[in-house]
Amino acid sequence: MNRICKFLELEMFSSTKGLVFIALVLFLLNNIAWGKIYNRRFVLREVPYTRLCNTKNILTINGQFPGPTLYVHRGDTLDVDFYNDADHNVTLHWHGVEQPGNPWTDGPEYITQCPVQPGTSFKYTIVLSIEVGTLWWHAHSDWTRATVYGAIIVYPELGSTYPFPKPLDNVPILLGSWWKRDVMEVLQDTLKYGGAPNISDAHTINGQPGDLYPCSKKVLNIYFPVLKINSRHVRVGLLVEQGKTYLLRIVSAEMNVELFFSIAGHQLTLAGRDGAYVKPFTTDILMIAPGQTMDVLLKADQPHGNYYMAARAYASAVGVEFDNTTTTAIIQYHKPNHVPPLSSSSPLFPSLPDYNDTQLAINFTRRIKSLVSTDHPMHVPLTVDKRMLITISVNTLPCVNNSCEGPRGTRLSASLNNISFVKPSIDILSAYYSSINGVFDSNFPSKPPVKFNYTADTFPTDFLTAKLGTKVKVLDFNSSVEITFQGTNLLAGEHHPIHLHGYSFYVVGLGFGNFDKKKDPLTYNFVDPPKLNTVGVPKNGWATIRFKADNPGVWLMHCHLERHSSWGMDTVFIVKNGGSPLVKVRPRPSYMPRC
After folding, report:
1. Number of Cβ atoms within 10 Å of the Cβ of 572
2. Distance (Å, rounded) from C-alpha 426 to C-alpha 112?
3. With contact defined as beta carbons under 8 Å apart, do 62 and 81 qualify?
4. What is the DSSP letter of 346?
5. Helix-helix angle 2-14:18-31, to 10 degrees
6. Listed GO cellular component terms (predicted)?
7. What is the spatial distance between Cα 259 and Cα 315, in angstroms, rounded to a whole number?
8. Mean pLDDT over residues 435-441, rounded?
């Protein structure tokens, strides 16, 4: 806040344009961190972990899997000193943190920085502004995020409180994937042979598969206490007191699968999504996609006993193999200062939907609305300066002698507006601000190259082939942007979680089928649309978002299904600087990693 006061003092004497002055003040109030500055140290190293009767070395931060939870208040700043003590190039991304004016430490490899090489270090400055609730951090190089991830818990700023009764405790729930193989070998085989990647062998809750998997009863969890059945068996569980309320900080760090999540015998109250509060509503099923976060209130209002929390796949694509296993943890009721031994009988198990229950998934999503109040205002743009229609497709590329493992010997690919993104050899951010030519093209199309029935059952074979390119879209500072994402049924229609770095946006509409530019905008919600950073585009459907391009920098947008991103379902927005030094990208740090 002192930074804002200092700015106001200077502007009082230097600014002669009142409207410009007011606009800059509003930008600062909404975008500049005003809290404390904290320092953390992250060391990347390989350590052995045992799951599913198999031990392998995995990448970790500080030896922990999942990694450390970061606790901050709204408006704080984190300086994370990162040292790479492993054998892989890695970057870190702070998912959902808007990083106003600071794309240099947003993290995606070859977009805003070159990777941190083994034996080197890099300082990440994470600038929190308006975010509150649950966010997360993860590696952003190849598939290293499979084990390198953790939660960010953003408490309300000091002196304020939650818009709901204060819970007894905050409980991180991180949903993830586990392969018996080295996950980097899985990716390498996928890219080498051109087919679909091997599916994961398990889903996890806080790094543990749960006791429905082999060799998974003797477990220790960094978030849950150990619950003894007898001298030989131990289960993972969450201890709760009857009548108390707990705030579950749920993160989907899953790699390639969306999940249904439920707790036996309990209603869940969704109170936040992607670092913003929502109008609370109760449900017995959550649908959460990779990249998304949820703040969920759990009231321990059931009889004393043991109850499973469980998660398994929501798999919308027909004919696409997926991990159909179920991960679990146990909720155990206890009295204060007394933990009874866990009964040897099975805990109550929740009823989970069918794997392909798209209607339930979309009905849940449609219930999410912004909490609009004096303390939590809404700023959805009501007019549009830049309108885009972006198709989302799984495609193919030719392969020599039809020797790949994709359809008809082709190589699997993916695209946005039929452009399959190719990472450059140096980062786009440095190339843009240093005026280095030949790194990217600024002609990413605002609409598909060909208009067709996007959700048809059959297509001409030439529609399947994407074009390779490193294409970006340049946006004027402070322009109002509307993007309609249109899912296609090329190869296989699927639900896609699309994440935009550097921004939260309002989801003003979604539906099934082909977007109708005359009829569908009549259904837009401008009253309380959810404010998200990762939007789920329905299978063979569409979703429309709006945002104000008021954060200058270079920002990646991609599908958070890792196989799709690896195949090229990515693009980049370059948002120009504003007119004042206060709304320009910070100077390039001198210690940026070299390529």
Report:
1. 26
2. 9
3. no
4. P
5. 170
6. apoplast
7. 8
8. 97
Distance of alpha carbon 284 from alpha carbon 360, whole angstroms: 11
| Strand pairing category for 496-500 and 467-469 | unpaired
pLDDT tens, 165-211? 999 999 999 999 999 999 999 999 999 999 999 999 999 999 999 98
Tokens 């599913």 belong to residue? 52
DSSP 109-124: BTTTB--B-TT-EEEE
Identify the CA nearest to 222 among candidates 151, 311, 287.
151
- Enumerate the β-bridge partners of residue 559: 498
Two structure tokens written together for 52: 């599913």
DSSP code of 348? B
Please give the model's pTM, rounded to 2 decimal places: 0.93
8 or 99, higher pLDDT: 99
Here the tokens at position 396 are 């193919």
- The predicted model gives 320-349 an average pLDDT of 84
- pLDDT recorded at residue 236: 54
Closest to 93 measured CA to CA, from 549, 587, 532, 499:
499
Does residue 338 carry a pLDDT above 80?
Answer: no
Report the alpha-carbon angle 216-222-228, nearest 5.
50
Bridge-based pairing state of the strands 496-500 and 534-537: antiparallel
Distance CA(583)–CA(68), nearest Å, equals 33
Nearest one of 500, 574, 510 to 533, comparing CA atoms:
500
Whole-number Å distance between alpha carbons of 246 and 52: 30
Overall average pLDDT of the 244-267 stretch: 98
The pLDDT assigned to 328 comes to: 95
Q: Which of 231, 232, 233, 261 is nearest to 249 (CA)?
A: 261
Whether 43 contacts 90, CB under 8 Å: no
CB-based burial label for 531 (10 Å; 0-12, 13-18, 19+) = buried
Of the candidates 287, 292, 285, 275, the one whose C-alpha atom is nearest the C-alpha of residue 370 is 275
- Give the model confidence (pLDDT) of 76-135 as tens digits: 999 999 999 999 999 999 999 999 999 999 999 999 999 999 999 999 999 999 999 999
CA separation (Å) from 4 to 9, 102, 327, 571? 9, 17, 47, 34
Tell the residue number behind the tokens 């530019």, with chain if given: 517
C-alpha span between 358 and 356 (Å, rounded): 6
Q: Which residue's entry shows tokens 């490899």?
A: 109
pLDDT computed for residue 339 by the predictor: 63
Extents of the domains making up the chain: 386-575
Rounded to whole angstroms, the Cα distance separating 227 from 229 reads: 7
| Structure tokens, 115 | 């990777």
DSSP structure class, residue 135 = E
> pLDDT value at position 376?
92
Work out the end-to-end distance of the chain between its first and last CA atoms, rounded to an integer number of angstroms.
37
140 token code pair = 């952003």
pLDDT digits (tens, 9 = 90+) for 506-520: 999 999 999 999 999
Respond yes or no on whether the N-terminal peptide bond of residue 336 is cis (omega within 30° of 0): no
Element (H, E) at 560: none
Token output for 188: 């390498």
Beta strand pairing status for 326-334 and 306-314? Answer: antiparallel
